[in-house]
Design brief:
The chain is α+β, with helices and mostly antiparallel strands. It contains 13 helices and six strands. Strands 1, 2, 3, 4, 5 and 6 form a six-stranded mixed beta sheet that branches. Bound molecules: iron/sulfur cluster.
């Protein structure tokens, strides 16, 4: 499909729209303000935005800056504190990488400026590297997130299903990035995708690119991007033990590597297909229902069992051996930084306790 360039370059149309309509975001330098972006702030926002929407990311971003205003401060932070503040954003490997990258950057005396060097930092993938290079350092780089992906597929009617179609998106967008305002171009594409070229019901009549948009010309913008059929997520099961003693609940810290690595958790079994019901010691175990959680590669159903003890359980007993129990006051659990899976378990117990017997 040939795109009608309508003589005015796409970047000019887009930037004119951006200058008038840019979203106000906590981490954003408004177009034309003349301020220099702080790469730490840009990077932190981009990492968080990969986990959550703009509103929640804003809350986490402000909190992180309050606690750790510079990359050096974050580099010096305690791992457990960062994990606690990250809790709720999910995908904790990102938080561990955030910390690892901060330490490398602090050791280097500051952020590197090119896409290639940024990519060498822990946990920085092609999108984040390009976004930071363009927004913080004014480098010509093509940052492709889901919003940009959608706009580009529609603009050029690219119909190769994602993720295979990403190469074509890069090739189509790369030449459009203007040398003088690559950061604003990147943010303008993100804004257009978030506010006008939305997944459903794109508002083509308000779009600054309508005159040169192939999908709009075809009359089928929502047919793009073409998605490959979804793979079915495997199901796994596990059991978590809610052990109460003297107003405290037993938590454990998960091993540093792997899923929810380094996070606080309820003790329990492993997670596998058909995980058998097991308990760490003999007690009156009450079934409390189950919580579900979707991880990237599988869906987990975690069954919750509760027991209240008069004395602390023997540490050498059964499945708890080798794990150090962290006895946490019941009323402090909500603020302990439990990851979403276990925060759901806590919510389930709270709900059951609130129900009349
Ligand atoms: S014209 Fe419509 S489909 Fe094309 S980029 Fe604009 S909003 Fe998206």
């Amino acid at each position: 499909m040939r795109v009608d360039s309508q003589s005015e370059p796409i970047s000019t149309r887009l930037l004119r729209w951006y200058d008038a309509s840019a979203r106000t975001l906590p981490w954003r330098i408004a177009p034309g303000s003349g301020e220099t972006p702080d790469p730490y702030r840009v990077w932190l926002a981009e990492v968080m935005l990969q986990q959550t929407g703009v509103l929640a990311a804003g809350r986490y971003w402000r909190r992180f800056l309050e606690l750790w205003p510079t990359v050096q401060a974050l580099a010096a932070a305690d791992d457990a504190d960062v994990m606690r503040e990250w809790a709720g954003l999910g995908y904790y490997a990102r938080a561990r990488n955030l910390l690892a990258a901060a330490r490398v950057v602090a050791g280097m005396g500051g952020f590197p400026e090119t896409e290639v060097e940024l990519r060498a930092l822990p946990g920085i993938g092609p999108y984040t590297a390009a976004a930071v290079a363009a927004i913080a350092f004014g480098r010509r780089a093509t940052a492709i997130d889901a919003n940009v992906e959608r706009v580009a597929c529609r603009l050029f009617a690219l119909d190769t299903p994602l993720p295979a179609g990403r190469k074509a998106i890069e090739q189509a967008l790369g030449p459009l990035v203007p040398a003088d305002r690559p950061g604003d171009f990147t943010q303008a594409m993100m804004d257009l995708g978030a506010t006008i070229c939305t997944p459903r019901g794109p508002r083509c009549l308000l779009c600054p690119l309508q005159a040169c948009c192939a999908a709009a010309a075809l009359g089928t913008p929502e047919a793009f991007p073409v998605k490959a059929p979804k793979a079915v997520r495997p199901q796994r099961q596990g059991h978590a033990w809610w052990i109460e003693h003297d107003g405290n609940v037993a938590l454990v810290r998960r091993p540093p590597k792997g899923l929810l690595g380094g996070m606080l958790a309820l003790p329990g079994t492993g997670w596998s297909v058909g995980e058998a019901e097991r308990f760490p010691f003999d007690a009156d175990w009450q079934p409390m229902g189950a919580v579900r959680h979707v991880f990237t590669h599988f869906e987990l159903s975690l069954r919750l069992f509760r027991t209240q003890l008069r004395t602390r359980p023997p540490l050498h007993s059964g499945l708890l051996s080798g794990e150090q129990l962290i006895w946490t006051p019941r009323e402090s659990l909500a603020g302990a930084g439990l990851p979403t899976l276990y925060a759901r378990a806590l919510a389930l117990i709270d709900q059951l306790e609130a129900e009349p017997a």
